[in-house]
Design goal:
Belongs to the UDP-glucose/GDP-mannose dehydrogenase family. With about 450 residues, this protein is of the alpha/beta class. The chain is built from 18 helices and 14 strands. The chain folds into 2 domains: about 200 residues, Rossmann fold (3-Layer(aba) Sandwich); about 240 residues, NAD(P)-binding Rossmann-like Domain (Rossmann fold). Helices cover about 45% and strands about 15% of the residues. The longest helix has about 30 residues. It is globular, with a radius of gyration of 24 Å. The chain binds uridine-5'-diphosphate-xylopyranose.
């Protein structure tokens, strides 16, 4: 009999995982404690912008015309307990307010609510990013609370999806990592992934701590790579070198690789910044904080990029923002997402606003979320409207729409033609020939 799957927490990770499991042919039940989310997903609507996710969801959500009906949503724990053989925990582990550590309360609440309804054999699989040591602790909690006792097992199966590519990354992962304490965990997860997802994909079986660490180590490495190239950008600017050329040249060495060497205003989002901080906090608890002091530097190089963009903008408008209009193109932490969590773009916009600049922001998909987070900034309905009357234009999130803008058309409405490329993605030649003073981070001025 085919396994039945539940997915607990239906944010980016959970909604995508639930739809992907249904795509593979499983019967899936998704649970969230927020009834509005369940209601929205039940209508085949996705509460965030994620390319391809809504189509996949509509293909499977029960009640939608032409769907397979394999995917349903609920707020009932009892229903989840009675339905599932494998329960995936996909809730958020955000950074704690004012601390480096991550907030485990959603994961703990999910396990505490799920365990008492597990009356039959089941596998609980954690997917959330957690500090090393959490799985062992949660396994104990589960064993103490689940009526089925030893017939309930825990496994850890970290997820590596990127926003904007969530569907693709879930259906075609680079690797599958499972942390297990017993044989049943591995057997059931092999069964789940013995589908097109797993075909030809490396399947790494490890213990709990290693599986938990794989995720934090991977994100720390990626963050380090970005801060490395941004440190080189600082040096290039001082020495009149070109960081884009430099990245290309070192990237030809296969040991280094070209990916994740885009210099600019640095990384943001709901994962990299909080994951490196939570990792440092956990290393401190384990008494090995020295092993990760380099991550403090990774974090500070990253934060310095935002301040540097503010300085470049101030310089472009003559030394003070007072009375100056600043157009900000981009609000999300990266393109193809509506996520503004720890967005470098909005952070720069906010700093300039606090220093007296009149900031107008435009973003193709992130306007609603940006307005909620920074209600005091001004927002324009199009890029052209944001640029109208501006003394400097800042390109802070590399949406394709911005690369396709005509610098001559923008130049006709701007108050002065100064543009700063915070993502090294615009065509410098095209902007310069349209009469703009063009500066990009880590590149020569001329
Ligand atoms: C990241 C990891 O890539 C993913 O594997 C993990 O599961 C979750 O965290 P995500 O946060 O969606 O994914 O975004 P990612 O594409 O990694 O970009 C993170 C940030 O780094 C963005 O702000 C992006 O603009 C920035 N970045 C990325 C750079 O500044 N330069 C680069 O070369 C690459």
């Amino acid at each position: 009999m085919a396994l039945k799957i539940t997915v607990i927490g239906t944010g980016y990770l959970g909604a995508t995982h639930a739809a992907a499991m249904a795509e593979l042919g499983f019967e899936v039940l998704g649970l969230d404690v927020v009834p509005e989310k369940i209601e929205t997903l039940g209508r085949g609507k996705v509460p965030m912008y994620e390319p391809g996710l809504e189509e996949l969801l509509r293909k499977h959500v029960a009640g939608i015309e032409g769907s397979t009906g394999r995917l349903r949503f609920t707020t009932s724990w009892e229903e989840v307990g009675a339905f599932g053989d494998v329960h995936f925990i996909c809730v958020n582990t955000p950074q704690k307010h004012g601390e480096y550590a991550c907030d485990m309360s959603y994961v703990e609440a999910a396990v505490s609510s799920l365990a008492p309804v597990l009356h039959r054999p089941a596998l609980v699989v954690g997917k959330s990013t957690v500090p090393v040591g959490s799985a062992a602790r949660l396994a104990e909690l589960l064993a103490g609370l689940a009526p089925a006792g030893a017939d309930v097992e825990l496994a850890w199966n970290p997820e590596f999806l990127r926003e904007g590519f969530a569907v693709q990354d879930t259906l075609h992962p680079d690797r599958i990592v499972v942390g297990v304490a017993g044989e049943r965990g591995e057997k059931l997860l092999r069964e789940v992934y013995a589908t097109p997802i797993g075909e030809g994909t490396p399947f790494v079986v490890a213990d709990y701590p290693t599986a938990e660490l794989v995720k934090t180590a991977a994100n720390s490495f990626l963050a380090t790579k970005i801060s490395f190239i941004n440190a080189m950008a600082e040096v290039c600017e001082a020495a009149d070198g070109d960081v884009v050329k430099l990245a290309e040249a070192i990237g030809h060495d296969e040991r280094i690789g070209k990916k994740f060497l885009r210099a600019g205003i640095g990384f943001g989002g709901g994962c990299l910044p909080k994951d490196i901080r939570a990792f440092m906090a956990r290393a401190g608890e384990l008494g090995v904080d020295q092993a990760l002091t380099f991550l403090r530097e990774v974090d500070s190089i990253n934060m310095r990029r935002r301040g540097h963009m503010v300085e470049l903008a101030r310089e472009a408008v003559g030394g003070s923002f007072l009375g100056q209009r600043v157009a900000v193109l981009g609000a999300t932490f990266k393109p193809d997402s509506d996520d503004v969590r720890d967005s470098p773009a909005l952070n720069v916009a906010g700093q300039i606003h606090l220093q007296g600049g009149q900031v107008t922001v435009y973003d193709p998909k992130g306007m609603d979320n940006a307005r909620r987070l920074f209600p005091t900034l001004a927002y324009a309905p199009t890029a052209l409207d944001a640029v109208r009357g501006a003394h400097v234009v800042l390109h802070l999130t590399e949406w394709r729409e911005f690369r396709e803008l005509d610098p001559a058309v923008l130049g006709a409405v701007a108050a002065s033609r100064h543009v700063l490329d915070g993502r090294n993605a615009l065509d410098a030649g095209a902007w310069r020939s349209a009469g703009w003073t063009f500066r990009a981070m880590g590149r020569p001025r001329a």
